[in-house]
Amino acid sequence: MIAATGAMGVGLLIMAANYSLGRSPLKRIEKIIKRLEQIRDRLLEIVDEDAEEYLKFSKIPKAKVLEKEKAAKRIAAVPVEVAELCRTAVNLSGYVAQHGNPYLLSDVQVAAELLLAAYRSALILSKENASNG
């Protein structure tokens, strides 16, 4: 769910950036939108991949220790990637907030809060996974 939360934040940021196209240097905002779209798409992929990997993990018998450990490592990598993607998106939100449509500043702020929530949640899960691994 943390990847879905991040994707919602990025989606809101993309919306604000799109409505800001006429207010900012076009090339820079277009690059930001493209990068944000890549981040959103990857976060949405992670939602499905994470669910599939966890389902596979849960079906591995406890007796298959090595296989279970490998699957656990794949699952543990998910929050790290989510955190990195959300951090990148938050960094891009600063430009949108500064140079975008001022009427959409609250949308950018909400997007940043969603991204920060996903980022912090990913850090918690990453730490938990590391201590259990």
Provide a descriptive summary of the structure in words.
The structure is a single chain. The chain is mostly helical and 133 residues long. It has a single domain (2-132), classed as Formiminotetrahydrofolate cyclodeaminase monomer, up-and-down helical bundle (Four Helix Bundle (Hemerythrin (Met), subunit A), Up-down Bundle). Helices cover 86% and strands 0% of the residues. The protein contains four helices and no strands. The protein has helices at 2-18, 26-59, 65-99, 105-132. α1 (2-18) runs parallel beside α3 (65-99) and α1 (2-18) packs antiparallel against α4. The chain is elongated. It starts with a helix and ends with a helix.
Question: Could you give me the name of the CATH homologous superfamily?
Answer: Formiminotetrahydrofolate cyclodeaminase monomer, up-and-down helical bundle
Spell the H/E element sequence. Answer: HHHH
**Total beta-strand segments:** 0
Strand content bin: under 5%
Principal-axis shape: elongated
